[in-house]
Amino acid sequence: MIRVVLPVHLRTLAAVGCEVTVEVTGAPTPRSVIDALEARFPMLQGTIRDHVTQQRRPLVRFFACQEDLSHESLDTPLPDAVIAGAEPFLIVGAMAGG
Amino acid sequence: MSRVRVLVGTRKGAFVLTSDGQRSKWDVSGPHFGGWEVYHLKASPADPNRLFASQSTSWFGQLIQRSDDGGETWAPVGNKFTYADGGPATHKWYDGTPHPWEFARVWHLEPSTTDPDLLYAGVQDAGLFRTKDGGQTWQELPGLRAHASAPNWQPGAGGLCLHTILIDPVNASRIFIAISAAGVFRSDDAGATWRPINRGLKSEGIPDPNAEVGHCVHRIAMHRSRPNVLFMQKHWDVMRTDDAGETWREVSGNLPTDFGFPIDVHAHEPETIYVVPIKSDSEHYPPDGKLRVYRSRTGGNEWEELANGLPARDCYVNVLRDAMAVDSLDPCGVYFGTTGGQVYASANAGDRWAPIVRDLPPVLSVEVQTLS
Which domain holds residue A8? Predict the structure, then answer.
């Protein structure tokens, strides 16, 4: 079970609280976590990854364990602490716009 | 007792303003989708309780929301706008170089007049999409971008946006769309094929002022009773056609400036039209700091100033292209929203104005429903 923290606008959209959990089959990676997240909350499709390219939207960031994972491959395994449930995977709206 | 419902899209959410037929006391609900840009909301004429909203941000992309209870509750529907295969790979960028066609947002939603599940969406980069299932899935009508001119379309300052969609109320196979800065196109086969209808437009800002394509059309408007008569606010110039776009002629007449964005038609007088003159293309505010609507009762050329109740000094707001609408009560109500967050209403066809709200976020769009 992976803990995922969503930015406030996506919490509102999905009608959930700050943190949700998703079940991931196989090795947990950003891609598999987002796949599971979108399967559970279909309204999030297209908001984190572009519909066409399936790449992270430019103003969305992925953090975990005080590290910025945004520029890693979507298939990079998540940190052990995230897999163990000790730390959440954070999906963050980038600070931009002044 | 009739009621009106004013649907306001802003930079930071949507607002729904409601009143009875007197249009003097208003209830304000919102913000809906707070913090998101809402470029447009529009109701289905076939089911007045069905509303659609285009919601977007640079962070999280495009959403379409639908309400089936007049705006009380909303739910997201489909947001996948994928250009059809086989279209042009690029259009021209501001500097004239090729630029990939990229979806940015939905500018305008146009519901069918008869089918509550049928809806068109005009998007940036310019394309026309349609849903037949109430917004769950969207398909591009590829014939528009198949036009030979498409690789040469170039964006206006706001982007290469398809911002106006008019469906002929008599012949639903006839659709007009406008793109900034390509011009007006017409389909006579329900969107399968298109041709530009810009003859008579003259734009000094492009290499060939009389070009078939390349004009920065800001908005077009139609009266339901005369679908072959269209009125246009162009980048500069107010224009009209009496033959469904085959030829256009200028009707700017005595306007203090013929630059502006919105244009609309009185609900019961097809020769009565409204514009909001803006100083220039580089100074997007009213001339002399005086916010004024201009009305022509002669289909153009002769214009009268409508200033009663509007700011007479120190006003430097803009009124964007989709931010004016009329109701169908008698007398006709006219509404517009400003980039300063005011929504003004006139319950007497523009003779007197009063703000419904003064401090909303910048207003992007205004639509009105007249409810029985």
Answer: 2-93
pTM score: 0.97
Which of A43, A47, A52 lies closest to B82 in CB terms? A52
The answer on pLDDT for B152 being more than 70 is: yes
Nearest Cβ partner for B60 among A47, A96, A97: A47
Q: Which of A6, A8, A9 to mutate to test the interface with B (most CBs of B within 10 A)?
A: A9
- Asked whether residue B117 carries a pLDDT value surpassing 60, the answer given is yes
Q: Which domain holds residue B184?
A: 3-371
**pLDDT band at B81, cuts 50/70/90?**
very high
Closest CA to B160 of B109, B122, B204, B191: B122
Domain count, chain B: 1
Q: How many CB atoms lie within 10 A of CB A25?
A: 8
The CATH number of whichever domain residue B359 belongs to comes to 2.130.10.10
- Min Cα separation A40/chain B (Å): 15
**pLDDT tens-digit series, residues A3-56:** 999 999 999 999 999 999 999 988 999 999 999 999 999 999 999 999 989 999
Using alpha carbons, select from B209, B204, B210, B179 the residue that is nearest to residue B194. Answer: B179
Structure tokens at B4: 């009106």
In CATH, what number is assigned to the domain containing residue A53?
A: 3.10.20.30
Matching residue, tokens 């995230």: A82
Asked if the structure places residue A98 within a domain, the reply is no
Residue A72 lies in a domain: yes
Rounded mean pLDDT of B20-42? 97
Q: What's the angle, vertex CA B278, arms to CA B239 and CA B57, rounded to 5?
A: 100
In chain B, which residue's Cα lies nearest the Cα of A94?
Answer: B59
The C-alpha atoms of residue A88 and residue A82 are separated, in whole angstroms, by: 6
Which residues in chain B are contacts of A47 at CB distance < 8 A? 60-61, 63, 79
